[in-house]
Design goal:
The structure holds two protein chains of two kinds. Chain A is α/β, with parallel strands linked by helices. Chain A contains seven helices and ten strands. Classes of the chains: A alpha/beta, B alpha+beta. At the A-B interface, helix 1, helix 2 and helix 3 of A face helix 1, helix 12 and helix 16 of B.
């Protein structure tokens, strides 16, 4: 199966097995799919279905037991640890469920962090960080530390940080799981708006129907395999 | 720069823990700085006492005299040797001496003594021991006439023999050539309390001509004690008198094969020299013991801090932070911890030493360690030593945090984030 020309990432027969004391566990088992450039993709499924494992593999945080993953045409299996770190830094943004931010850094500094790693000048990165924080509605709170922000505001900072380096792909692992429904809806609206505005691909792992409703496409996982796929738009 | 800022802020995540660890570190540095200043004071006092005592900075003898104290081993004619010695630029003062065994008697009481013949004016330039009198005065060549019939003995010896000032005693010595006994009746004009057990307990100090007469030495002598120029007394000529090799080099021109052998005070007082060498070993052991205790505290603190932040390290690795950079932040954190603890500790240690220097530490006159501490010990605080200890402790703090830094860089993001 060839990759779609517009695919930002492709997975071919990807498996991830873990050895446990109770025997091997197949977290992912022969998953083949494309992640299309500019789409909002939801990876749905119950706990233990392999959603977070899939995001970790696409994000080059982990290596598959079998199969092949390419991100922007680069086969992740052929990357060294250093090359994988550079790929994550420059082309992939992450938003986790909680504890997303460095508590001793301000919102501005958290957003700046990846740009510091990239070696951008202080002026350039502060300008960019302020602009993105303004886009996510936190222009007035740039000097606050995470402990001084609400859960929803912290997730907005995490989204701003993920966008700061202008990545091709943002992987969000259940980003609304710890938020109340109103805050979750506002965060989702914001991410979808950013997707439309910047054309950045968003991949969510979720079991929240509200998230699935806002996605362009939903891939359902069950026991490490794709059980179904539905296109929303 | 970002690493240092991040590390500084990380340090204060748990202020109480940081302050407790820094306090332990600071106390260790304070102990080291104050101990070092104290040791400097003690050893400085020992060296000063040695140089100001009978030993001087160096001595000239006939080869073998130092080991055997054989009366027959005499130096070449004194006048020519002294003239040659005093011409050497590094020599500040030279004092000729005779030494020999003698019997000091009063009535039916007597005691064997070391008969020391000296020139008072020369001794006053070499050392300060002639000033250290419990009673009376030092020898005066003009007071005793040509016969020089005076003697100074130690106060403890006088007490033992029940001798008082102005008492006349008989000093008997054997002629080094013929073995014939020679005696003189001498008046006790002074009682020494010099801190030197030899002088105080077993010496009878007489004018040089008296010593030469009693021992049948003619114009010859056994010893020349020397005071040398130091950088403080003569910046261009002075030498480091703590350095035996430097003294040997400076006095080499005085050596005459088979006749004159210069020796530094290190050779004349080997026990003092050994103690000086032991000082650095002792400080090194002390440093090691103190730091070993502190290292456990630091390792515990850093391990706890790292464990609490495993998730954060995984997050930062996920964002593309290289392992080396994460390790560098942890090391910078430990360096800050080291400085926060060590610098105030060094300052406190310096302050403590300065205060002790001002008030002095008194041991009482009966405490003896090679020499007796009749004067208070004054620690010598050193800003450069304090800074060095602060830096050494900070560097050691960084060193023991290397394992924590290595572990931080090795955090597996996928595994850690999945386990949350």
């Amino acid at each position: 199966m060839d990759a779609e020309p517009s695919a930002v990432a492709t997975l071919r027969d990807v498996s991830r097995h873990y050895a446990t004391t109770a025997g091997p566990v197949k977290a992912l088992d022969g998953v083949t799919m494309d992640i299309r450039r500019g789409e909002v993709l939801a990876i749905a499924g119950p706990s233990g279905s392999g959603k977070s494992t899939l995001l970790g593999l696409v994000g080059a945080l982990d290596r598959p037991t079998g199969g092949e993953i390419c991100v922007e045409g680069r086969n992740l299996a052929q990357l060294s640890a250093r090359e994988a770190a550079i790929l994550r830094r420059d082309r992939i943004g992450f938003v986790f469920q909680a504890y997303n931010l460095v508590p001793v850094l301000t919102a501005l500094e958290n957003v700046e962090y990846v740009m510091v790693l990239q070696g951008r000048s202080k002026t350039a990165r502060q300008q960019r960080a302020r602009q993105i924080l303004a886009e996510v509605g936190l222009g007035e709170l740039v000097d606050r530390r995470p402990g001084e922000l609400s859960g929803g505001q912290q997730q907005r900072v995490a989204v701003a940080r993920a966008l700061a380096a202008e990545p091709a792909l943002i992987l969000a692992d259940e980003p609304t799981a710890n938020l109340d429904s109103a805050t979750a809806a506002a965060l989702l609206d914001m991410m979808v708006a950013l997707n439309r505005q910047h054309g950045t691909t968003f991949v969510f792992s979720t079991h929240d129907p509200a998230v699935m409703q806002r996605a362009d496409r939903v891939v359902h996982l069950r026991d490490g395999r794709i059980s179904s796929e539905e296109r929303r738009s | 720069m970002e690493n240092l800022v991040l590390a500084w802020r990380n340090l204060w995540r748990n202020p109480r823990r940081t302050l407790l660890t820094a306090a332990a570190l600071g106390l260790g540095v304070m102990a080291m700085v104050a101990s070092d200043a104290y040791m400097e004071g003690v050893f400085g006092k020992i060296v000063e006492t040695t140089a100001n005592g009978l030993t001087g900075h160096a001595q000239l003898h006939a080869p073998g005299w130092q080991q055997t104290r054989d009366d027959q081993l005499r130096l070449p004619p004194a006048e020519a040797l002294l003239a040659r010695t005093r011409q050497l630029p590094v020599v500040r003062a030279a004092a000729p001496r005779t030494w020999g065994a003698a019997l000091l008697a009063i009535g039916d009481r007597n005691r064997s003594v070391q008969l020391l013949g000296v020139v008072p004016a020369d001794e006053a330039k070499v050392g300060r021991w002639p000033e250290r009198l419990a009673a009376g005065r030092f020898l005066d060549p003009s007071a005793g006439g040509d016969m020089g019939g005076e003697v100074v003995i130690g106060a403890p010896l006088a007490k033992r023999l029940e001798i008082e000032l102005d008492t006349r005693v008989v000093v008997t010595a054997a002629d080094v050539q013929t073995g014939e006994a020679r005696s003189e009746l001498l008046k006790v004009v002074g009682l020494l309390k010099s801190s030197d057990p030899l002088l105080d307990e077993a010496a009878a100090v007489v004018l040089l001509p008296v010593g030469q007469r009693l021992l049948g030495l003619g114009g010859s002598i056994h010893e020349v004690a020397l005071r040398l120029h130091t950088p403080q007394t003569a910046p261009a000529l002075g030498i480091d008198t703590d350095d035996a090799a430097e003294i040997a080099r400076a006095l080499a021109p005085l050596a005459v094969a088979g006749q004159v052998e210069p020796i530094a005070w290190h050779t004349a007082q080997p026990l003092v020299a050994e103690m000086m060498k032991m000082r650095s070993s002792w400080m090194f052991i002390f440093l090691g013991l103190i730091f070993m205790v502190i290292a456990f505290v630091i390792v515990g603190t850093m391990s706890m801090a790292m464990l609490e932040r495993t998730w954060e390290f995984a997050l930062l690795r996920a964002l593309g932070t290289p392992p080396l950079r994460l390790g560098a932040v942890v090391l910078a954190e430990s360096a800050w911890l080291g400085l926060v603890g060590a610098l105030p500790g060094a300052l406190a240690g310096y302050g403590l030493a300065a205060w002790l220097q001002k008030i002095g530490i008194r041991y009482g006159e009966n405490v003896t360690m090679i020499i007796s501490f009749s004067e208070p010990i004054r620690p010598v605080p050193s800003a450069s030593a304090a800074l060095q200890y602060a830096l050494v402790f900070s560097a050691l703090t960084v060193l023991v945090s290397a394992v924590a830094a290595f572990r931080a860089g090795r955090v597996e993001p996928a595994l850690t984030l999945r386990s949350r």
